[in-house]
Every structure is written in C-alpha cells, then in structure tokens.
Amino acid sequence: MNRPYTLFCDSTCDLPEERLIKMDVKLLHLTFEIDGQAYTTENISMPEFYRRMREGADTKTSQISIGVCEDAFEEEIKKGRDVLYLAFSSGLSGTYNSALVAREHLLEKYPDADIAVVDSLAASAGEGLLLIYAEQKKREGYTIEQLKSWIEVNRFHICHVFTVDDLKYLFRGGRVSRAAALAGTVLGIKPVLNVDNDGHLIPQDKVRGRKKSIERLGQMIRERVGSNLNPVVTISHGDCIDDARAAEKMMKEIFGQDTEVVIAYTGPVIGAHSGPGTLALFFWGDYR
C-alpha cells in the first residue's frame, strides 16, 4: 500500500499567496541579502525589494542548505509520510544538489522512506506552472512514483520566454558582456531570452524598445505552443504590473479568454539577477 506523501517546492516558484493557499504544497525558502542583511520572501515586500534595487542596493542570493532540506523532509517522514521535492533548476542553483545530499542522509536513518527529488529544470513562475500541474496530478491520485515520472517527462513542455529592462543586472550575473550591457543602455536594446532543456538562461534575440520586446515574446509563444491546450499560464514581473497586464491580454488572445492567467512578482532570488522591469511568460508548449 502506498503511503501518503508531501509535495515540496521552493520559494522561487514565484506563485502569489492567493494561488498557493489553494494548493497542497509546502515551500522551502531560499535566502537573499540586501546590502549585507539577510532576508527571505517572508520579511520584505516585493515593492520594497525592487525600490531598493532601483536605488542601487547590492543584492546577493543563496541556495537552500542541506540542513534546511533535511529538517523539512524529516519532519514529514516522522509523520509516516513520504516526500516529493520539486526543486529549482539545477542549471541556476545548487539547491537541487543540496536536496540530493539531504536525501542520502535521511535514507541512512529511514531506509523505508521514499524521498523523491526531481529537478524542475525551471525557474520563477515556470517552476510555479509546473508545480500547479504536478499538484493537480497529486490530487487526481498519482502515487509518488507516478508523479515523479510524469514530471520528468513533461517538464520540458514548460516554456519560459522573458525580457529584461536593464542589461546591467544580467551583466552582473555574467549573462551578457560589459560591452553588450553598455550598448543596450545607450541604444535601448532589450534582450529576449528563454530557458533551455538543461535549465539554463539562453539569449534568443535582441530588439530595440520595450514594446517590441513584449511583441517578440508573443511571437515566441506562437512558435512554441502548437496545438497544446493551456488551461492555466503564468506571468512574473519585476515591479512592472502594467506590462504584465498587457501581456495577460496578449496571452488570452493567444490561448483563449477562459485561460487562467496567474500573475505575480518575480521573487527576489530571480529578481536579484534579472532586475526591475523583468517580464516573463510561462506556458505549456511543444518545445522550449
């Protein structure tokens, strides 16, 4: 007989609280620093975080430690429950590897436990969109092994397309060169990026101007979506809600007016590297 299990994910899933409270999931919180002071998403508001970034605050992020993973998983195991952890992309963070080490430690103490650690190969509300689908499958009665297999097969359908407003943040993270960052600032060049099958951020195009960059995101969606149904899509934004609302309208035109569009801030762990003005759209498509 299959034991009950708890579904875990990360705070980097960037889903709004009103959506999360409808879901049977527990989150592990990555930490970040602003000017040397440590925070989690529980003790600073998103408008405040982005205000401080715009004012030049120094931001740093940290992966979830082995100990945090171990403590959270062990709490469930002691209740007689197994664990499935949907982890932040290994292409962007060491959190997945921390969870694997925690799993090995716990299996030495609890050899009968089932602890599944799955690399989402996704980030921000792309991870969140995968979590929405995974949680629904769990509600439908998928066992822990069935859900693990489903995620591993279908995670490559979770498409990420996004743009940023200021290249200096990608430069700080080593995503673009200093010359490209300077040229982008002077010429108003906006990069358009996606996340590949290895969970890495990949530049796809460069366009001039914010409006054209958002239009290009729409083109990328149409290129990838095929005939797939999208009952729910997600949008994350770096404190640019008007652009997110415009993108919502565009996505409903593409997917249909009945599609649920979940909008939330790009959280600090992602936002520290992408910056204010980030606009990211996530959906189920044929390929990334």
From TrEMBL:
<protein>
    <submittedName>
        <fullName>EDD domain protein, DegV family</fullName>
    </submittedName>
</protein>
<dbReference type="InterPro" id="IPR043168">
    <property type="entry name" value="DegV_C"/>
</dbReference>
<dbReference type="GO" id="GO:0008289">
    <property type="term" value="F:lipid binding"/>
</dbReference>
<comment type="function">
    <text>May bind long-chain fatty acids, such as palmitate, and may play a role in lipid transport or fatty acid metabolism.</text>
</comment>
<dbReference type="InterPro" id="IPR003797">
    <property type="entry name" value="DegV"/>
</dbReference>
<dbReference type="Pfam" id="PF02645">
    <property type="entry name" value="DegV"/>
</dbReference>
<keyword id="KW-0446">Lipid-binding</keyword>
<dbReference type="InterPro" id="IPR050270">
    <property type="entry name" value="DegV_domain_contain"/>
</dbReference>
